[in-house]
Write a structure and sequence with these properties.
It comes from Oceanithermus desulfurans. By secondary structure, this protein is of the alpha+beta class. It has nine helices and eleven strands.
Length: 332
């Protein structure tokens, strides 16, 4: 680059491209690795698009800068609109995405200014293009030893003695990640299953999952839903999910001290017998809601430790493939 705007734009683009490459690769390995219906390439689309825009801008700064500015503006508006539609928009969230979205507009404008200066430019300006692929490769080397060789799920119930008591987790069927056609139920839908009209669907609060939740309508075997509540099964607590987290097919020695992370003897993983490595769910809903009552707590398969995810809460009406559930009952 010949001017300081071009040099600043290249530095900022390199940072943004590296962040997007890491986010895409890390999200893929945490969420989608081993899930047949989760295309891994989709996680790298933002990074690939930014890489191509960077290539164009480094070759033709004026044209590439214009494209990058327009792309950054369009992405920012799309992302904010998505958060507004989900009821998650706030200035904190908006500012958190600005370094990798709205900042692209600034980078595009700086490259446009660089393009006003004519003449040959050194070929070394293309060297930053090597960073995003290197970041993806680094993420793969970091995650693959963790996500490879997971213990497969077992369709039957799972009885286990944990730090939270002796528990039995529901077998495959309506008590474990029931799917609504192309979509997945929200916490509110699970909690209001028994309310008329009985079934999964949007129903207003307040919610009482213990009395009218889907788990309460499971029969004793946990394989079918009844017309009346049996109150054998229920959604678990955070402490119960954490205590049942596994690594290598056995308990990981986890306890829940509160907050966003568990304390574990080994870092837990998404594998049987608690999780289904081939299913999209990486979080399990719990029966617990926040003090305000507008969000429900969930637990990731990692326990909130090293490889991603955290013990946190989402709005009651939040439903997506990554938030699943599994009913439980205490044996003693």
């Amino acid at each position: 680059m010949k001017t300081w705007p071009g040099k600043v734009a290249t530095a900022l683009w390199t940072l943004a491209a590296g962040l997007w490459a890491y986010w895409g690769a890390a999200e893929y390995f945490f969420e989608a690795y081993g899930v047949p219906d989760a295309p891994g390439w989709a996680y790298l689309v933002p990074a690939a698009a930014l890489w191509l825009l960077g290539l164009v801008a480094l070759a033709w700064p004026r044209a590439g800068g214009t494209l990058l500015a327009l792309a950054g503006l369009a992405f920012t508006l799309w992302w904010w609109g998505l958060m507004i539609a989900r009821g998650l928009f706030g200035w904190e969230q908006a500012l958190a995405t600005a370094p990798v979205s709205l900042a692209l507009v600034l980078v595009g404008l700086l490259w446009w200014l660089e393009g006003r200066v004519r003449g040959p430019r050194p070929r070394t300006r293309f060297l930053p293009l090597a960073l995003p692929p290197a970041v993806v490769l680094g993420a793969a080397l970091f995650y693959l030893p963790y996500v490879s060789g997971r213990t497969p799920a077992s369709p039957g119930p799972w009885r286990v003695t944990t730090a939270a008591g002796e528990l039995e987790w529901a077998p495959a069927g309506p008590g474990w990640n029931l799917r609504l056609g192309p979509r997945f139920p929200s916490w509110a839908e699970l909690a209001a299953y028994g309310r008329e009209p009985r079934g999964l669907g949007e129903k207003p609060g307040p919610y009482d999952p213990a009395a009218e939740g889907l788990c309460a309508y499971l029969d004793a075997s946990g394989t079918r839903l009844l017309d009346e509540p049996a109150h054998v099964w229920r959604l678990p607590t955070r402490a119960e999910v954490v205590a049942s987290l596994v690594r290598g097919g056995a308990l990981a020695g986890c306890r829940y001290p509160g907050g966003e992370q568990a304390t574990c003897e080994r870092i837990p993983n998404k594998e049987g017998p608690l999780w289904d490595p081939a299913a999209p769910a990486v979080y399990y809903w719990t029966a617990e809601t926040t003090a305000e009552g507008d969000e429900a707590w969930y637990v990731p398969y990692s326990g909130g430790l090293r490889y991603g995810g955290r013990i946190a809460s989402q709005p009651l009406t939040w439903g997506n493939p990554r938030h699943g559930y599994r009913c439980v009952r205490r044996l003693r």
